[in-house]
Amino acid sequence: MRYAQGGGLTDAGRAARERIRLRAVERFEHGEKDKDIAAELRVSQRSMERWRKAWRERGREGALSRGSPGRPRLGPAQMEWLERELECGPLAHGWPDQRWTLARMKTLIGRFFYISYTVEGTWLLLKRHGWSWQQPAWRAIERDDDAVNVEEGGLAAGKRQAAVRGAWIAFEDEAGQSMTPPRARTWGRVGRTPVVRVRGRGSGRLSMVGMCCFKPGSRSRLVYGLREYRGRKDEPKGFGWRDFCRLLVRARIQLGGPIVLVWDNVRLHLTRGMRAFIDRNSDWLTVFQLPTHAPDLNPQEGIWSLVKREIGGLVAADLSQVTRAVERKLKQVQYRPGVIDGCLAGTGLALGT
User: Fold this and answer.
1) What are phi and psi of 7, to 5 degrees?
2) Per-residue pLDDT tens for 95-133?
3) E strand or H helix at 212, and its extent?
4) C-alpha to C-alpha distances, 219 to 256, 258, 259, nearest whole angstrom
């Protein structure tokens, strides 16, 4: 089949395609199967099924091609206007949620330009201009976008101070995992949802704390700590501020230099004992707070995402099995500094030389 320079069929190619359709219609009338017709005419079986459906509904004329789709009905200026309106979100146009569907966008085109598109035509139009069906990221309404600006504010000051002192920048965060594993995708029959049997009652919890450490010209590092809680008497449920102090001292020994610590505003980070420890060790430790409701700026969140993906669907017999799986994944990340750098790149932050 011959194609024109722009990607469409030439006149000769279109005529040859019509002859193939006519030959397929003749075979339909003789009762032959789609599979045999597609193999002989060298056409996909899916196209053959579509032609047969059109032939059944509208006869011989329905199976023929409708010709070239022609020029787009929305010009460049109209499309630019439509994209600006789509970026404003569905709430700005009267819908109660933040989901753009093809039906809503079709309605929006008719409302602005008085042009009627089908749902399929709307999909082709958006795909042609670089739009796709995506899963959005959650972001808190209370978040202050000006405070999250990486070129100004606390993060930028922390980067400047780390560069002056030759210090490591460490991003700290905590996480937890129970005996119930995270859900993970798996293959299954259509119409039959796979079922994974997990323990429903509480059987302990694993607390995790970690720090991604970066320094221009040095290999990225990961420092972490794990603690199991089995519900025994006087057993701590998680990490306290003294545990954070020990982790920071251990990180300083391993890194061999001063640390600029970046973490969130959780209450445990603001206790009196933690503040006193920071003041006593101000010669090697400087602390900056992340903006409120901005977990996407912490690369340690990416490390936890990798860990959760590793243990997805894990049916553990006891808490020790969960701990071993988590520690194995964290050890793997420690020996792969490129993975740690990838978590930093995912936040949009960059460390200059």
Assistant:
1) 105, -15
2) 887 888 889 999 999 999 888 888 888 888 888 888 888
3) strand 205-214
4) 13, 16, 15
